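note to self: the first set is below, dont mix up w the second
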Amino acid sequence: MTTLLAGPGQPGKHARPTGKMRGLWEASPLTYVALIVAVAMSLFPIYWMIVVATRTNDVVSAVPPPLLPGGEGGDNVGRLFDNPDAYFAQGLLNSAIASTVVTVSTVFFASLAGFAFAKLRFKGKNGLLLTIIATMMIPVQMGIIPLYMIMVELGWQNQLQAVIVPFLVTGFGVFMMRQYASQAIPDELIEAARVDGCSTFGIYWRVVMPALRPAAGVLGLLTFMQTWNEFMWPLAVLAPDNPTVQLSINNLANAYFDDYTLMFAGTTVAVLPLLVVFIVFGRQIIGGIMEGAVKA
């Protein structure tokens, strides 16, 4: 399947794929066409959102629709933050605080629990893991009423901790980190660290956490996006004057008339933090995954 390239009297050192093996590495032109079409179809709704956000309401019913951004973007963003019904600045701040705290907490506790389930021995481990997996099978909507009653008893209605505390750790995060830790961290590495005198938490912080960085990056990105886009629970527990960013956009839609440019401007501003987070952490995630693949 491979051809060895060697000089005179010298054993071959390089292998080059030939025959069927070469087909696994080379993509056909049709593959590139399909990828370009898929990317264009994925990006066009975002581009159209930006186009409408930078124009007036006339473009919504215009035929043919304009395909280039206009010059009303600054005015629309200004009207967005000045809108008395949206509380958009407060919504951005609340979403940023809630998403950051939930992401950091989820990555920390999920990685800690995942390490314990994957590498430590204690009574009831399998039963606890099955219980955590079972929580993933229960729809979030089924827990809204009892969770809301708990928030009322704690007096956390219309307070930001009601959006943060119930989601400080997730069953999916624990299961994901447990699966990754069981494969990525050899038992010999744990034993070597213990022989060197590391405590259990020291092993987690100095040995396990660096090895879990790719999975932690993926979990952090998914958690931030989910918390930022959460709508139903903040709608149930927060008042209109103390919203998250998704509730602020919903308040724009509940006005006396549909100002599409204002809603699209709000959606564009709400998407920007997600793009920044992906750009900042996406390269580290991909780099960590590639590093693990090369070592494997």
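second set (the one i keep forgetting abt)
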Amino acid sequence: MKATGTAMGPRPLLDAIAEALGAEREPALALYVHVPFCSSKCHFCDWVTDIPVSRLRSTGEERSPYVRALCDQIRFYGPQLTRLGYRPEVMYWGGGTPTRLTGAEMTAVHRALDEAFDLSGLRQWSVETTPNDLDPATLDVMRGLGVSRVSVGVQSLNPYQLRKAGRAHSREQALAALPMLRRAGIDEFNVDLISSFPGEARESFEETLRTVLALDPPHVSVYPYRATPRTVMAMQLDREFTEARDRHSMIDDYELAMEVLGGAGYHEYCHGYWVRDARHEDQDGNYKYDLAGDKIGFGSGAESIIGHHLLWNENGKYAQYLLAPRDFTHAHRFTTDEPDRLTAPIGGALMTREGVDFARFRRLTGLDFADVRRTPYVTRWFDLLERCGGRFVETPHSLRLEKSSIHRAYITHLAHTMAHGLAPERA
């Protein structure tokens, strides 16, 4: 079968997925639901660059067309995928901020999912939120629907840094969010933090980290700041209104987090993801390891990797999604002719302790990893990772980065691309 392009309709796409799966199909499926609404347009967030503030902050009435389109897409694809043998094991609602939805809207989307799929086998259902969009009534609805895990975007507890980052919540709201979750009976939750914000002193980041740890979260995520083009912070850096951190200080900040978290009994199971107990790990793999299993994403801005295909909808084509929610703005079958489409899943896999499992890679993409690795694009990319300090460990069955080298390779590569704007093929 040839690589599929953007003109493929829903029915031919489903036929192509079924053909690609053949005898290799497995029942496990991850569900992702994208909610493209927020209370503010954060200055560091790459997802909001193409979204007008007025749409981002849509009210309930303005959101209704989106909820209807989302439910239509779910009700169309869900039964088809169920007939192919898929059974969801994990579900993640992200965005955006899913808790911007009303209880009635959440219930409507969940009802569509429950009618379209067999959700009885869900092991984990995560929902993202921000402290200012969290309240007891919303949590009661979520708990009643079956949400088992919540990820809270705190980012920083420094009031000045929160304003500089364009966040809508306060330090006090962030500190109140975690006890609120526990009172609602949700004991599985994550706290998102960002290290190396431009201009933020290491002492400020450490104070945030230690204050959060005093609240005993089961899961902590630490993301080194990434200056994505066209975000407010990136433009401020370009215009020298603020100063970027160099890679050495970024590594120092992250190693401070490693020291503090390790001292508090946490271990890192994937770059940036920390738990004390393995049962608290994020099981969906949405942000760290797209090769963990087939994933179908619903909503504008959502991405899918399923049946040897990469599917996604562009953020900037919101109106198009409302008119034709069953179509994807991009639908591509993985090929060695377009190895750049594998950058995110391979890169995510290399951030985990397991790395790229060759058999899993072949099942999910339809490609032999050795063939992909020989392409000039991936050859140059891996060479760059080694120059950034990554140390590859290969077995007959997998390729991974030595655990102690992951953070240095990732941050050095990040700083390199921020400074030079280089993709692997140009590096």
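remember for set 2: The CA atoms of residues 148 and 383 lie 41 Å apart.
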